[in-house]
């Protein structure tokens, strides 16, 4: 049984079942699951709520996870936003089962932790449960002057080495909303093509 806790105008659910209804959309025949992952402070929760309510909301670091249903165009899906702190990352694997796509969010300004981000991404993509998951990388915080370009982020993460996986990187700004629609359109197209 899932319990919902309300904080302000946002709901947070605790796990009773990791296999709740996830993504009832593309054909109506199969539910799909999308995870938003990345290091703490990358902008995962801001992106989640920008996609859901269309505006930036004040967030606090995610301890555990947020689950929200998002209506995008004519599609309805549920997105799991998992906390990115060092102590929480080992628990990401508890949520991998039945995942169809991963949105991996990178703080393009955080050059010092790009190596850690790469290590986490590589370890995650080696997991058997994610072998078929589509990867969308958001090179986030592109509205900042010191942001690495998407190609610099792709190089730092070693994305060109991914030969057996559909992936794409997008230049995004969670606070301005830029790049989010383009990324979601690509993801939906990839999910539709896989059906």
Helices and strands, with pairings:
Blueprint: E1 3-7, E2 10-14, E3 34-37, H1 44-53, E4 65-72, E5 75-82, E6 101-107, H2 114-125, E7 134-140, H3 150-157, E8 167-171, H4 180-194
Parallel strand pairs: 3-5, 3-6, 6-7, 7-8
Antiparallel strand pairs: 1-2, 4-5
What would the average pLDDT be, to the nearest integer?
Answer: 78
Approximate helicity band: 10-25%
- CATH architecture group name: 3-Layer(aba) Sandwich
Low-confidence stretches: 1-30
- Described by the principal axes of the CA atoms, the overall outline is globular
- Please give the CATH class: Alpha Beta
Main sheet properties: 6 strands, mixed
CATH topology category name: Rossmann fold
Specify the CATH homologous superfamily: P-loop containing nucleotide triphosphate hydrolases
| Strand order across the largest sheet | 4-5-3-6-7-8
Rg on CA atoms, Å: 16 Å
Number of domains: 1
SS element count, helices: 4
Given the helix and strand composition, which structural class is it? alpha/beta
Termini separation (Å)?
30 Å
Order of helices and strands: EEEHEEEHEHEH
Strand residue content: 25-35%
- For the secondary structure, the number of strands is 8
GO molecular function: GTP binding; GTPase activity; metal ion binding
Organism: Callorhinchus milii (Ghost shark)
Binding site for Mg(2+): 45, 62
Binding site for GTP: 38-45, 84, 140-143
